[in-house]
Specification:
It is built from eight helices and seven strands, in the order E-E-H-E-H-H-E-H-E-H-H-H-E-H-E. It has 172 residues and is an alpha/beta fold. The protein has a five-stranded parallel beta sheet with strand order 3-4-2-5-6, with helices on both faces. It has a two-stranded parallel ribbon with strand order 1-7. Helix 5 packs across helix 7 (132-147). The protein has a single domain, classed as P-loop containing nucleotide triphosphate hydrolases (Rossmann fold). Bound molecules: adenosine-5'-triphosphate (ATP), (3R,4S,5R)-3,4,5-trihydroxycyclohex-1-ENE-1-carboxylic acid and magnesium ion (MG). Residues 16, 39, 50, 84-86, 123-125 line the site of (3R,4S,5R)-3,4,5-trihydroxycyclohex-1-ENE-1-carboxylic acid. Catalyzes the specific phosphorylation of the 3-hydroxyl group of shikimic acid using ATP as a cosubstrate. ATP binds at residues 17-22, 123. Monomer. One of its GO terms (molecular function) is ATP binding. Its cofactor is Mg(2+).
Length: 172
């Protein structure tokens, strides 16, 4: 697949902690294109952290900001975009991304995600649970069908990510 850094977009989807930023940065470096983090974009626009947005405005309002951020990212940027964990699962965001570029779902085992996230804070939907693994399982069950809309699925635990990058992309 050829990739033009001046016109093409690649959206990385996956659960919180699945490795979107890590993989997205690496891919952007390989393809010599820009890297954009949708959560950072929202924070810059709102002038507040994600936990603050959830606390002060609630999840519904966050999802609206996320939808607006996606539209403006589609207009203003190219390159690799790591989305928010829930972004493909609300409104018509999944279709918007599939129309605007290539979508990649990082399918990382929940146990791996659990081990990565158990001592971390700053994720409003996961911070207030005393059963993190159960919450991850429930969230993934609700989101799975959305994530499966991605054009490319990568089993990130069992796959050599570098090989995947080489397999799918050649720079134009
Ligand atoms: N392929 C990998 N192998 C080992 N560790 C990884 C891998 N990918 C990511 N990690 C580690 O897992 C953690 C989460 O990764 P990362 O921040 O990239 O995920 P994310 O999906 O962007 O998370 P967030 O929901 O915070 O946006 C980090 O500590 C990162 O170093
Ligand atoms: O999984 C989610 O719904 C979220 C993931 C984060 O990337 C942020 O977009 C926010 O905390 C919501
Ligand atoms: Mg990230």
């Amino acid at each position: 697949m050829s990739f033009n850094p001046n016109s093409d977009k690649i959206f990385i989807w996956g659960m919180p902690g699945s490795g979107k930023s890590t993989f997205g940065r690496k891919l952007a470096e390989q393809l010599s294109c820009t890297y954009t983090d949708m959560d950072d974009w929202i924070v810059a626009q709102a002038g507040k952290s994600i936990p603050q947005i959830f606390r002060e405005q609630g999840e519904d309002e966050f999802r609206k900001l996320e939808k607006e951020a996606l539209r403006s990212i589609c207009e203003k940027t190219t390159g690799v975009i790591a989305t928010g964990g829930g972004a493909p699962c609300f409104f018509d965001n999944a279709d918007v991304m599939n129309d605007a570029g290539l979508t990649i779902f990082l399918d990382t085992p929940l146990l791996t995600i659990y081990n990565r996230l158990r001592d971390r804070e700053g994720r409003p939907l996961l911070d207030n649970t005393n059963d993190l693994y159960g919450t991850l399982k429930q969230t993934f069950a609700q989101r799975k069908n959305w994530y499966c809309e991605a054009r490319i699925h990568i089993k990130s635990e069992t796959t050599d990510l570098q090989k995947e990058i080489d397999r799918f992309f050649t720079k134009q």
